[in-house]
Amino acid sequence: MPADIDLLIRPEWIIPIEPAGVTLSGHALAVSDGCIVALLPIDEALQRFRPRQTLDLPGQVLLPGLVNLHTHAAMSLLRGYADDLPLMRWLSERIWPAESRHAGPDFVRAGTLLACAEMVRGGVTTFNDMYFFPEAAADAARKVGMRAVLGIVVVEFPTAYAADADDYLAKGLAVRDALNGDPLLSFCLAPHAPYTVADKTFINIATLAAQLEVPVHLHLHETRHEIEESLKQHGVRPIERLHRLGLLGPQLIAVHAVHLEAGEIDLLAREACHLAHCPTSNLKLGSGIPPMSSIQSIGINFGLGSDGAASNNRLDLFREMRHAALLAKGVSQNAETLDAHATLHAATLGGARALGLDGRIGSLLPGKAADLCAVRLDEWLIQPCFDPASHLVYVAGREQVTHTWVEGNLVMSNAVPLQINISELLDMTGLWHTRLTS
Amino acid sequence: MPADIDLLIRPEWIIPIEPAGVTLSGHALAVSDGCIVALLPIDEALQRFRPRQTLDLPGQVLLPGLVNLHTHAAMSLLRGYADDLPLMRWLSERIWPAESRHAGPDFVRAGTLLACAEMVRGGVTTFNDMYFFPEAAADAARKVGMRAVLGIVVVEFPTAYAADADDYLAKGLAVRDALNGDPLLSFCLAPHAPYTVADKTFINIATLAAQLEVPVHLHLHETRHEIEESLKQHGVRPIERLHRLGLLGPQLIAVHAVHLEAGEIDLLAREACHLAHCPTSNLKLGSGIPPMSSIQSIGINFGLGSDGAASNNRLDLFREMRHAALLAKGVSQNAETLDAHATLHAATLGGARALGLDGRIGSLLPGKAADLCAVRLDEWLIQPCFDPASHLVYVAGREQVTHTWVEGNLVMSNAVPLQINISELLDMTGLWHTRLTS
Q1: Neighbours of A140 (CB within 10 A)
Q2: Which is the most buried residue in B228, B247, B297, B414, by most CB within 10 A?
Q3: CATH class of the domain at B3-64+371-407
Q4: Chain A nearest CA to B257, separation (Å)
């Protein structure tokens, strides 16, 4: 007897990520109760299952939903607010003043809503966020239907959100307690960066991370300036400082990691740390280009991040995939570096693994959540297509994404998020544009 | 009495490129007989002109059509045919064998048609081509309604197109004679590269370029390998070799120019050579990253090129703009390098100047041809917009281009080229896909 299932998807191709390097055709994905039931040849699927809905996707490729391993979602309201400026001037002259005037819960709710809408449009199903008022970000993510990892952000200085490091931690942990049990939400400890967090706070965070079994997500070795300041103030480079404070380990997600010495790459590998590679933001802020070829060959796990829209200026994982693959080749002067399948891995399972969510998302193994996206490769202006995997990385853009599912729920199709009203979203961004420019 | 004109365009913003760094609002562009008549405040336009058609473009920015300064248009049929391979293996194992089997006039006509359709979709109005059978490329460009600069390609070895260097030159010059007088077509001498063209041929080409007053367009210092081979065979690096052969000068468009020593940058500047910067192709083939910050600060004129779709894999100047701006910042570790307006300049007037067409296209000065594109910046997923110029470079994609005009003719709107049949185009690319994979 065939088993009842919710949905059978029959695309032209499926890239399951696990096993690695595989592109299937003639296969179908069976989904029920928000989970992947099976990935199997179409003939077999028709014998084994009686789907309530069957979706044929000719000319389209199905893959796991993309994971944005580092963003400040609310900053989508500051998209293009300050371009062509170096990091420290960008922060101190433009971003921080705007945030100190505007960044309350309403700003975060509105900005994260825009960010989530943009992300699901482009096939992103999970984002790892670092911003103030995570409860407002959670509201927005739930509204759009996305999976979110909310950062429990910590800096030493006061903002509209909290007074000091202990206050940031207390507020973040309270949000975590309040939202515990939501299947689409989880948490990270998110100390902002070595230059904004004190030793004592880092030690607390290491303890908390071990107790709560949550990742620690921070900006690390983003600029030469950060490293020089650490040498002046602490006598060591930030990675060594964090090592001494007990922060390195498989719970650590080091964001950026642009400037790494060989010994630091070895250390990060030995400690099984994860990296969030943000190629666009690193270029745009003039931070530099991380040594991805060495990082890849030593086997450090990494995912891809868009960073915030103020330094990118899109929350577009297709763009990050392309930039990551291209830069790795250009810098190593080896076109075989970071090939298409390795890049797709980084944008899905690599990010999921860094977040400790690889048992749940990141590949199309049965039992995992049905976080998926479908991308059409038959549009005239991207013809011909010889290899769907390399077409995803080097040709297609987010404009070719046709469907996005989170836990089996269709959250985007026909180019729009399904759970929100676009006209209201436009009104809201217009309002914030006026506030920010007045 | 108001003067009759063909068209008055009233967009939200106009970026004229000349004067530099300017974004106008409340202005209109008057077009008649394929030329720009005036760029002026809307009130004044309504007094001075009686347009046969008025086009309001709220939320859109109008700018000169983009110039693709280096491509092999016909290779769009080889889009993604061989990815993740280094240049010499890519050429010798994949591209050259495919070309030797397939690259006849039909291939060139079909591939260039696809390329031109793709380019006008993305706001490109002029392309500088280097490929065999330029008469077939000319057919395709005329069909789509694009402006083309056709390369009179020269290599020493025989192909289906020609037998030896003299034969290539003779065939190319015959095409030039035959098509002379078409206002949308012009010609370049296109010796392929230092490693495929002999001294004697270069000397002929220098003479011809001076006689015919046409640019010379060649791949130069693309890879380290090319330079090493030149040192072995000629005892000097390729730029020095060309210098001795009399090729350096304002007629030269050096494509790629990835590997440059300080003295070579000085020499190219002194000789007033132009560069065609192809950031995506240089990364994808692992060639490297040119020192654009030094090139920009010494004042060498440069435009942007997509290269062919086999090494990019899109003929998308929005992508090249973004990659150029981002890379220049990342490599120089200075976020102020190659700002948005400088990047827009490279993609328009920079390319036009290299081609000797800056009297005709590249900016919105009265008297120039009405080669234009309009881009919508009011789409929800790219909100908010604080600065149209930086939004064009860092946020928008070719999917936001709404109209493309060449000499006042609308050649693209509603996401499709207007002069060709897309369904026929798809059939044709399908046919070539089958041939290339069988």
Answers
A1: 24
A2: B247
A3: mainly beta
A4: 14
